[in-house]
Amino acid sequence: MVAVIEVRIASLAVDSRGQPVVVLAPASAEQGARRLLPIWIGVPEATAIMLAVAGEAPSRPQVYDLMTTLLDRLDADVEKVVVTRLEGGTFFAEITLATPSGHEVVDARPSDSIALAVRTGAPVFVAEAVFAEAGMPDADGAGDEQSQLAAFHEFLDDVEPDDFRG
Fold first, then answer.
1. N or C: which end of the chain has fewer CB within 10 A?
2. Is the pLDDT confidence value at 159 over 70?
3. What would the pLDDT profile of 44-90 be if each residue is shown by its tens digit?
4. What is the CATH number of the domain that holds 54?
5. How many domains does the chain have?
6. What is the pLDDT of residue 40?
7. What does the alpha-carbon distance between residue 77 and residue 117 come to, in Å, rounded to a whole number?
8. Which domain, by its residues, includes 93?
């Protein structure tokens, strides 16, 4: 079994090139030193996540709303989402579904998985190995969340997604 850390969305940001980034942070302090994990995503996915976090409904259902409706109609629930690995600068995730016929694990993009998890209230996890490879540690190991996020947003002004390619 792969060791995982439960996370929450710390923020949605935009890098210096205008590319959206979802920033994940451990859900609790007991899960280790303060770390942030940036995952670059597309504009539609960022919009979907932002709307769901804000509790707003789009004027027309988005694909994630359709997915939620389909799961409801099939009597299935999103049990959890796990960002499982990072290969060549690309993050991979899995959605675990609880269905009437048992558990099903579905391969998915992290951005889609997170958008679905926010809509369904499912927990999101990240493999510890992914945090070790791509996470950004708190430089001084202390400080409040707002100052850490401010420092991270400054970091985003100079970083490119290719900086995380292996």
1. N
2. no
3. 899 889 888 888 887 888 888 899 999 999 999 999 999 999 999 99
4. 3.10.690.10
5. 1
6. 93
7. 10
8. 4-164
